[in-house]
Design a protein that fits this description.
34 strands; 6-stranded parallel beta sheet; 22 helices; 7-stranded parallel beta sheet; alpha/beta
Length: 721
């Protein structure tokens, strides 16, 4: 019936007027419209709304129909709030079990009939793990999104079938707080939606699982196909003082990061809790790691899947590791590495409750600082020197880290992002320092003093200056709140001081003092950092070329993630020049590039400090990255490898034409890079001119000037008597 109605609607059409789905798509991006464009859209939506039937309204997803209703009345605030919620929280909302009325979690003034849950609003979600060859063990979590699963009244039924026919399967329900935390639900509690089952079959042929969920009177069915598994070697995972030791009956077992760029060179047989990353001891980064071998693997004891995930976790130093069986789209066996945040504080729903609790109990601001670098993944940039200077002046600093693989600056206290400690620290800190943005859910308090250091002089257009912005509603809203909270914005040079405020929507004071991160590149500190970094990387006196390209907005993987784009044949550069090539992927694309290594090429993407790598390099090869403005401090040779300059200019746009005054040769191929390296001397007039234009203030004493300009000069010490 639903299909027939939609066909009739398509045949009937709406004349020349846009259809409800077409207008809904435009309303989702209304946050990008100027006032005139918004008024035009309101007029179109209002005209259409008068003609649409209830059925046409209800055919739309709930957020679209509510947003269209708000747009028809010119309520832009509600439209933008719904768009932000869609991008930040996904499809999560709460559904009343009795009335099936949708609660979006935010008060909206719309007729009740618009919030009646439709069939397409009640989406079934399923996650499974599979292990064992005969019988097959299956662990799963299945629920109707928005309906909190009640194990007293709701049911899950699993049917299994192979080419030989159906197989009777018994489901055992079990509460699993970890499964709830991983459900992605912001409003509904899915602790009771977890189960396990055994299937009396082997995995020599595919097994089709049909999972039927009945929840709150709603019935949904989801299907998953478990692929056939060849004869598999059992994998043993044991906890040791060092970490997780893997053994698969003598096979060459490897651990490969799926979601994090980690380390360099061959993967280890033992996933140590502590790893040496270029001379710095750190823990494994959080993420999912595939366990692979030269033949299929299986968990040694597949019945472990009958345990809740919290009970399967191996507690190591500063992290939790959980062995996982096959799940759709992943390897047969994987290890999930998590931060040691208590399970009752994990997941969107529990984070919301924790955040509300901390905010309701907030006390006065404290004389402390919360510092964050690249969303908690970094420990340097200009935030690091500023944090060390604040500590030197007697202001304690809490340094936010996504996990304990990030080593915070000396003298600061690491605080795990999303932990209770983090929420408490941010809510009560008087001083805030960041080079990007804080999480979308933060709310700044009156009296907080926020220094935004940003993360580079821009060559490519950013923020509001991008001609065709692809920024989401969530990011756009978060950046607007950010800019409104900044007390001051830092700029490296006069060009950035003019460009950044406009692009980022900031109307406050700009501190034109240079970049604190470049203090380490100037004079004696630069030479000391150069020697220390080369030693840590195992380099001698050979010539070192650092290749550090930026990311491309339009380059995406099949999964829609940013793809790594490289235009340099690093191996050829080494072969033809004898130089060691350091390869540094941009953090936005690094997780999807895989490891790159060959003779004379060292992958340093996992190195925590780009400034240290710039200090170690004799020559920088880059493209449109802001590192060119930092490397200018050294006055060493630079080469710009830009074969896609026309496409990049059309996609993103530039603030100025580098051809007019580049820091070094502009080339389009590896062969031309090699030629440029052959002719590159120690320092050129071109390099000196570029430094004079973009780094004249980076004299090695920037950090103290920046903190003085922000908080006032430090009082002189009393003379000793």
């Amino acid at each position: 019936m639903d299909l027939v109605r939609r066909i009739v609607q398509r045949l009937r059409g709406h004349g020349d007027a846009p259809s409800p789905p077409a207008l809904a798509k435009r309303v989702r991006t209304a946050f990008r419209l100027d006032d005139q464009q918004w008024r035009s859209l309101v007029g179109e939506v209002a005209a259409g709304a008068r003609a649409w039937t209830h059925a046409e309204w209800l055919d739309l997803p709930v957020r679209d129909r509510v947003a269209l209703y708000a747009a028809s009345g010119g309520d832009r605030a509600t439209v933008e709030r719904l768009a932000e919620s869609r991008t930040v929280h996904g499809p999560s909302f709460l559904v009343d079990r009795g009335t099936l009325r949708i609660d979006l979690g935010d008060p909206v003034a719309v007729p009740d009939w618009l919030l009646a849950a439709q069939e397409h609003d009640l989406v079934a979600r399923l996650s499974i793990e599979v292990a064992g060859s005969e019988p097959v063990y299956v662990a799963g979590t299945s629920f109707v999104s928005g309906l909190a699963f009640d194990p007293e009244t709701d049911t899950v039924r699993v049917e299994a079938a192979t080419n030989r026919g159906a197989i009777e399967t018994t489901v055992t329900m079990r509460p699993d707080p970890v499964a709830d935390a991983e459900s992605g639900e912001r409003w509904a509690d899915q602790t009771g939606a977890s189960w396990w089952a055994t299937i009396d079959a082997d995995r020599s042929e595919p097994i089709t699982l049909t999972v039927t969920i009945e929840s709150g009177g709603v019935v949904r069915t989801v299907e998953a196909v478990v692929p056939a598994l060849a004869a598999a070697a059992p994998l043993h995972a044991r906890a040791t003082p060092a970490g997780v030791e893997l053994d698969a009956d003598g096979l060459d077992v490897h651990v490969t990061a799926l979601s994090e760029a980690w380390g360099a060179g061959p993967s280890p047989l033992a996933l140590d809790a502590r790893v040496d990353r270029f001379g710095v001891a750190a823990t494994i980064p959080a993420g999912r790691f595939a366990v692979t071998a030269d033949q299929p693997l299986d968990l040694a004891d597949p019945s472990v899947l009958t345990l809740p995930m919290a009970e399967r976790a191996i507690d190591l130093v500063d992290l939790l590791v959980t062995p996982r069986g096959w799940s759709p789209g992943e390897a047969a066996v994987s290890l999930v590495v998590r931060n040691p945040i208590p399970v009752h504080d994990r997941g969107r729903r529990r984070q919301r409750l924790l955040l509300d609790e901390v905010r309701e109990q907030a006390g006065p601001l404290r004389e402390r600082t919360v510092a964050m670098c690249f969303g908690g993944t970094g420990a340097g940039d200009s935030v690091g020197p500023v944090a060390r200077e604040l500590v030197r002046r007697g202001i304690p600093v809490d340094w936010v880290v996504t996990d304990h693989s990030v080593t915070p600056p000396e003298g600061t206290r690491p605080v795990l992002l999303h932990s209770r400690e983090w929420h408490e620290a941010f809510t009560h800190a008087r001083y805030l320092v960041n080079n990007a943005e804080f999480p979308h859910y933060v709310r700044f308090r009156e009296g907080q003093r926020y220094l935004q250091t940003w993360h580079g002089t821009p060559l490519k257009r950013i923020g509001r200056d991008i001609a065709s912005p692809r920024l989401s509603a969530g990011y756009t809203a978060a950046m607007a709140r950010e800019a409104a909270a900044w007390e001051a914005l830092l700029a490296q040079n006069a060009f950035a001081a003019e460009t950044l405020p406009r692009a980022l929507g900031f109307a406050g004071p700009v501190l034109l003092e240079g970049y604190p991160r470049n203090d380490a590149l100037a004079g004696d500190p630069g030479e000391a950092l150069r020697r220390a970094t080369r030693e840590a990387l195992g380099l001698g006196d050979e010539r070192v070329v650092l290749y550090a390209p930026t990311w491309r907005d339009a380059a995406r993987t099949e999964q829609g993630r940013r793809a790594f784009v490289s235009h340099l044949d690093a191996a050829a550069v080494h072969e033809q020049t004898g130089a060691t090539v350091l390869l540094r992927s941009h953090s936005n694309a690094a997780a999807n590039r895989g490891r790159i290594s060959s003779q004379g090429v060292l992958d340093v993407t996992a190195h925590s400090d780009i400034t240290a790598l710039l200090a170690a390099a004799d020559v920088l090869v880059t493209d449109y990255s802001s590192v060119m403005f930092d490397f200018a401090v050294t006055e060493r040779p630079q080469v710009l490898l830009v074969p896609d300059v026309d496409q990049y200019r059309d996609d993103r746009g530039f603030y100025f034409d580098l051809q007019e005054a580049p820091p070094g040769p502009i080339v389009t191929s590896t062969e031309e890079v090699v030629e440029a390296l052959a002719g590159a001397g120690e320092t050129s007039e071109q390099a000196r001119a570029f430094r004079e234009r973009f780094a004249p203030l980076d004299d090695g004493a920037v950090t103290a000037r920046v903190v003085d300009a922000w908080l006032g000069p430090q009082a002189p010490s009393s003379p000793s008597r």
